[in-house]
């Protein structure tokens, strides 16, 4: 039986899939850090004590904080979503490429097994024919 001719490519595709999976995990950890940081900032902002200010100033401050938080949340979500999509797509691509090579490997293994069985059967057939000829030659003489 011969070796799989694309074994190097299969190893490469599996390595690419592992790298993409690691990048995907890194993005997920970064997202978790962003969520934790956002929660910490919100907690700090909620605990801030305003000094003596007018009602208008307090209202303007509250509105600007709400607007700023909303804007930051929107930007963070857009960034997180884009990063996650990019990494997920890379991971799926690497996984698909590795799977394609794995299917070729499986097909190669099946073909090699069939060829081996075919060769074994041919050897058995040859042995049977040779034995039959020997027996036939002995009985006719």
Automatic annotation (TrEMBL):
Tree of life domain: Bacteria
Protein name: Flagellar FliJ protein
Organism name: Leifsonia xyli subsp. xyli
